[in-house]
């Protein structure tokens, strides 16, 4: 057989093995729901909301927060704002005449980036539990109760939730989210999960530690640091939120590439955690290293070599292979792949992670970005 074809087969095989191992572990453990015994209690909660030019949607967000099922006198809302538009004015209007929840407004003189803003907000938050939420998201009314029930467990200091409805209807995103939810349940049942989600992350206040001012993965960074300090950080699929997303290839790249850069940089910064902290460092972190750092390069090289092998085996007919991949990407981004949509979603994520690695190698990735106006239309 052609040497290129052998190399291509080996590469595809090597890329697949860790995924198959993880799948086998999943099939063996069959993790479902939260990994801990939840207990209902009512600690005081600080809800942290960072805003940068969200005037169009901030009222919707506040209405949504005021509708959570939780005693309002036990809630404090900490807003940290660096807007140049009417965001602050809108927030003040919403709170006019309201005694509860208490409002703490931190006004920044200029935009410094999300991570420094959050560090200030976390310092100002005075309640037992701190919930961080993004302006462009909605929470299920019971999200807070479900989340704090996990924190009743003494070993757990942070919990994140599940995107149950992708606003705007992107099937690329919902396909990926359903795969991710299974991965995060397995990770949480083994020990702790890596990724914490911007629309909903809850932390015990006394476990919070400052994050890197340049961080592009603020919630995940905080969770990782808390895990390194000894407490578990878990994913509970019963904690529901909603966020908007695109399907189109080009539109997805900006946000997803940036998020990928944040995660890859974080893993590399904390490479010394590999192998430590029980199954977190022995299974969860290595799997994420594989998925986010190694596998995207293997996928890219496999595509090139398989194309080479196809051409050397079948001549011009071999071009059918890259054409098929192109058709797969075209149908995938138009949400037309039906049962195979989830495979495209993973491929899409690998594309972002590959591009993110390249950008990081080129020295890109500071702490501010253009807020996606189109995604906010779903909330107006
Ligand atoms: P994405 O969801 O990862 O694309 O991030 P977003 O652009 O939606 O930002 C997440 C949240 O942080 C939103 O509520 C933004 O308004 C807010 N935000 C983004 N950048 C800044 C910033 O520089 N300062 C402050 N205070 N908030 C920010
Ligand atoms: Mn967002």
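-> sequence recovered:
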């Amino acid at each position: 057989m052609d040497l290129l074809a052998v190399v291509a087969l080996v590469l595809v095989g090597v890329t697949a093995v860790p995924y198959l191992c993880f799948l086998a572990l999943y099939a063996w453990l069959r993790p479902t729901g939260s990994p801990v015994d939840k207990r209902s209690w009512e600690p005081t909660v600080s809800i942290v909301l960072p805003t940068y030019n969200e005037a169009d949607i901030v009222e919707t967000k506040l209405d949504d927060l005021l509708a959570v099922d939780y005693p309002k006198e036990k809630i404090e809302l900490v807003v940290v704002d660096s807007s140049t538009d009417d965001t602050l004015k809108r927030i003040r209007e919403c709170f006019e005449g309201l005694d509860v929840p208490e409002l703490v407004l931190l006004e920044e003189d200029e935009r410094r980036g999300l991570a420094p803003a959050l560090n200030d907000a976390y310092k100002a938050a005075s309640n037992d539990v701190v919930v961080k939420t993004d302006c462009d998201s909605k929470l299920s009314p019971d999200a807070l109760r479900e989340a704090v029930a996990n924190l009743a467990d003494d070993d757990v200091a942070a919990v994140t939730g599940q995107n149950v409805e992708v606003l705007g209807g992107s099937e690329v995103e919902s396909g990926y989210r359903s795969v991710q939810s299974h991965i995060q349940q397995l990770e949480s049942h083994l020990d702790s999960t890596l990724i914490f989600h911007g629309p909903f992350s809850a932390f015990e206040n006394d476990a919070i530690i400052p994050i890197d001012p340049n961080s592009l993965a603020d919630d995940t960074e905080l969770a990782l640091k808390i895990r390194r300090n000894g407490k578990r950080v878990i994913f509970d699929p019963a904690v529901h939120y909603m966020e908007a997303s695109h399907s189109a290839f080009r539109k997805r790249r900006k946000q997803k590439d940036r998020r990928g850069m944040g995660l890859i940089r974080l893993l590399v910064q904390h490479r010394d955690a590999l192998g430590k902290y029980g199954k977190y460092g022995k299974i969860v972190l290595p799997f994420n290293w594989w998925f986010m750092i190694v596998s995207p390069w293997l996928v890219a090289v496999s595509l090139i070599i398989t194309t080479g092998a196809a051409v050397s085996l079948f001549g011009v007919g071999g071009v059918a292979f890259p054409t098929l991949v192109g058709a797969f990407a075209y149908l995938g981004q138009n949400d037309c792949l039906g049962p195979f949509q989830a495979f495209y979603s993973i491929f899409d994520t690998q594309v972002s992670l590959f591009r993110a690695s390249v950008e990081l190698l080129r020295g890109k990735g500071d702490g501010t970005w253009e807020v996606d106006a189109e995604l906010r239309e779903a909330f107006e």
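Residues 1-380 form a domain with the Spore Coat Polysaccharide Biosynthesis Protein SpsA; Chain A fold (CATH 3.90.550.10).
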